Amino acid sequence: MSRPQEPHRPFFSFGNPFRILSPKSSQLSPRLRSQLNAFEETLLERLQKLTPKDKDDVLSLAWMKLAMESLSEGHNDVKNLITELELPVSDWDEKWIDVYLDISVKLLDICIVFSSELTRINQGNLLLQCLLHNLESNSPDQFTRARSSLDSWRRHINSKNPRVETCKPILDSLVESLNLPKVKNSAKGKVLMHAMYGAKVETVYICSVFASAFCGSAKNLVELTIPDSLSWAQAFTNLQTNMNTEIRNIFSQGEVTVLKELGAVNACLEKLYPMLEDELVPVDVESFKSSVSDLRRMTEKLTQGLDLLTKEVDGFFKLVLTGRDALLCNLRAPGTPPDTMLGRNVEGQALS
Fold first, then answer.
1. Are the beta carbons of 309 and 61 closer than 8 angstroms?
2. Up-side HSE of residue 159: CA atoms within 13 Å toward CB?
């Protein structure tokens, strides 16, 4: 996974974003207000869907897949809104473009980090498969080989990925980017800025959860404060409060592996390890076979979850990259026809 290097464009801080996030202004036409309401209602529904119903959902691969799907849907919603607004890139304020390019490159960077960690965890799966092969064989030295595979897996899964440490400065910058540029004399621009704000809040928060899960620390969790006037504010606050409380509780217990599926595999291995200490066949053969069966089942669940999540992360990366490329193409094409707009001219593009 790689991205092209673009010349750095300056990042601007635009002051208090809440001033432009007041309740729907009378300056908006009924059509624009309806379009913004539809976007925010969908955002609210996605946030409610992400709020875990059970604490076991927190930091599970299934929840993380759902969260990444939600981000892709949100960015697609912004793309579709731009198309509906019929807002050509030629009408974009330069400040909007600077913000967009700055945020999109940071999202690409953090996706690369997430993919790197998922790849590292998947490499541990190869050790688990080797372990299972040894446990299920009938060779004289099966337990010696199994212990060796188990020790290798422990060392690998407890090692740290240095790339994950780069998440903190990226997240800090993304939080700063929630400051929005002021919009003057453009009702469509105000609708766009409102939509961008919603998509960015969800994106920044979800990325902070992923970064926390992968680094094994709550230091990457963010606590975002958003205006109460937003229709989706309560749904977001509920999600953030529930997730952050449970994540901090998980870390306070000193869990070695915070991802639920990894934890389940680790529990099976802890049960098996004492049975492998002797050179001879375990005394309780039935218990041994049951433990091996449980390990295989948990390993398959982990493998499937990792594969699905990796596809979602890759898909989100491509979505952001395609949207960025589409915008840059528009900016480089003088005299672009009015009907060639970001959101219409490239399939699958998105606004971050």
1. yes
2. 14
pLDDT, tens digit, 9 for 90 and up, residues 311-349? 999 999 999 999 888 877 777 655 444 333 344 333 333
Residue type at 67 in one-letter notation: A
Q: Which of 107, 100, 108 is nearest to 192 (CA)?
A: 100
Establish if 169 belongs to a structural domain.
yes
Q: How many CA atoms lie within 13 A of 172 on its CB side?
A: 6
- Find the distance separating the first CA and the last CA of the chain, reported in whole Å: 19
What is the rounded CA–CA span in Å between residue 119 and residue 307? Answer: 10
Integer Cα distance of 120 and 176 in angstroms = 30
Distance CA 194, CA 44 (A): 14
Whether 212 and 247 have beta carbons less than 8 Å apart is answered as yes
Beta strands in the chain (DSSP E): none
Q: Length of the chain in residues, anyone? A: 352
Quickly list DSSP for 260-273.
HHHHHHHHHHHHHG
| CB-CB contact of 214 with 58 (8 Å) | no
Q: What angle do CA 252, 258, 262 make, to 5 degrees?
A: 150
The total number of structural domains that make up the chain: 1
Which residues lie closer than 8 Å to 53 by C-beta, 6 or more apart?
none
Q: What is the residue range of 107's domain?
A: 55-332
Does residue 350 belong to any structural domain of this protein? Answer: no
pLDDT tens-place string over residues 69-103:
999 999 999 989 988 888 776 667 777 788 788 88
* Alpha-carbon span 258 to 277, nearest angstrom: 27
Average pLDDT rounded to a whole number, residues 129-135: 90
Q: Is residue 142 part of a domain?
A: yes
Split at pLDDT 50, 70, 90, the class of 240 is: very high
Contact (Cβ atoms closer than 8 angstroms) between residue 6 and residue 101: yes
Report if residue 19 sits inside a domain: no
